[in-house]
Design a protein that fits this description.
The chain has 382 residues and is of the alpha/beta class. The protein is 46% helix and 15% strand. The chain has 3 domains: 127 residues, Rossmann fold (3-Layer(aba) Sandwich), CATH 3.40.50; 163 residues, 3-Layer(aba) Sandwich (Rossmann fold); 72 residues, Helicase, Ruva Protein, domain 3 (Orthogonal Bundle).
């Protein structure tokens, strides 16, 4: 782990460097703020100790510059002239901690430990968000550009959206993008796969239940609508929802309130609902399996997802994206793919759409040699 010390007093920066080096840390030093910022621009540091009182560029200016640079490092401010107001000002401007001189070794080591844990947590959170929300909608085909344009127009509103498309076309990704680009992005985003929940449990899952509402209800449970309050609720495979549950969902959409199973008390909720299905809901309505009034409530905006076969020009971009993504996640070395192998993937019929393509790319990365060749595609895909 690398640490940077920015202090104009040579004796302090050198003695602190020596102490931390003895503890096993890799330590760099800078004699002024400008030099320190230049070093941060070139190197990645887990923790930065910065003196407040320095000539030319003082510590507060350095802190402001580091914040503008958007670094992950935990910045710890140090001063021999500090007080509570100074400490509070530092924290407000983004510092991780504030330590007064003379420096106490135990305090420094504890601060480094805490700062390291915080930096690690920030990175893990960012990676998790990238996995959950940050998947890109890769492609430049006219069909996908139209979907992206609709997301850009609809996301800032609270309009309900119905996403229609075959399995594996990226309906979940559209829902996440709608949430992330909306004013509700800081609030919860809750997903429910209606097809995966038994019909006898769907009402409890969506609307919650009171203790004792049924045999296994040993405690009160908040449903998905309550959990998503202030944010977005994504109802995937809504075409598989029971008619009884549909009626309750309709009530929430109409009145913005619900009652838990086993209770008559109304609970007000503020939720944006995004739904998705791979079924033709108009046919389901004609067969009496889906409520027409719920369909009209959900379909304020309808986004039709193109199949992968309808956007074949995007396949090379998607393959390159998945190679980079999978190699990054698994630690496998990046692999190039031959042009004729790529053309074979473009020509293939993709019944499983983007989900199938990603699985195929992962299979090829595992089973191929230093390059992905046409022979690999013939052997492992076709």
């Amino acid at each position: 782990m690398k640490i940077l010390i920015i202090d104009d007093e040579r004796s302090i920066r050198n003695s602190l460097k020596e102490i931390l080096a003895d503890e096993g840390y890799e330590v760099d030093v800078a004699e002024n703020g400008a030099t320190g910022c230049a070093m941060v621009d070139k190197e990645k540091y887990s923790v930065i100790f910065c003196d407040i009182k320095m000539p030319e560029m003082d510590g507060m200016e350095v802190l402001g510059r580091l914040t503008e640079m958007g670094i992950d490092s935990a910045v710890v401010m140090i001063s021999g002239h500090g007080d509570i107001d100074t400490a509070v000002e530092c924290i407000k401007k983004g510092a991780f901690d504030f330590i007064q001189k003379p420096l106490d070794l135990n305090r420094i080591l504890i601060t480094i430990k805490n700062a390291t844990e915080r930096v690690s947590l920030v990175k893990e959170t960012r990676q998790l968000k990238k996995k959950v929300y940050g998947q890109e909608m890769v492609g430049e085909s006219p069909a996908l550009v139209q979907v992206k344009d609709m997301i850009g127009k609809v996301a800032p509103t609270d309009a309900r959206v119905l996403i229609i498309g075959a399995n594996g076309t990226g309906k979940e990704l559209v829902a996440r993008n709608l949430h992330q680009k909306s004013a509700r992005s800081a609030a919860p985003y809750i997903e429910v796969n209606c097809a995966a929940i038994p019909s006898e449990l769907i009402e409890s899952e969506l609307f919650g239940h009171e203790k004792g509402a049924f045999t296994s209800a040993i405690k009160q449970h908040k449903g998905k609508f309550e959990q998503a309050d202030g944010g977005t609720l994504f109802l995937d495979e809504i075409g598989d929802m029971s008619l009884a549950a549909q009626a309750k969902v309709l009530r929430v959409l109409q009145e913005k309130k619900l009652s838990r199973v086993g209770s008559d008390k109304d609970i007000v909720v503020d939720v944006r609902v995004v739904a998705a299905t791979n079924k033709n809901l108009k046919e389901e309505i004609a067969k009496g399996r889906f409520r027409e009034d719920l369909y009209h409530r959900l379909s304020v905006i309808v986004i039709n997802m193109p199949t992968l076969d309808e956007r074949k020009s995007d396949i090379p971009l998607l393959v390159d994206y998945f190679i980079g993504q999978i190699c990054s996640e698994t630690g496998m070395p990046p692999r190039d793919i031959d042009a004729d192998a790529m053309q074979m993937l473009v020509d293939k019929t993709w019944t499983g759409n983007i989900r199938e393509l990603r699985n195929v790319v992962e299979r090829l990365l595992i089973l191929s040699g230093s390059r992905i060749t046409a022979s690999d595609v013939r052997a492992y895909v076709l």
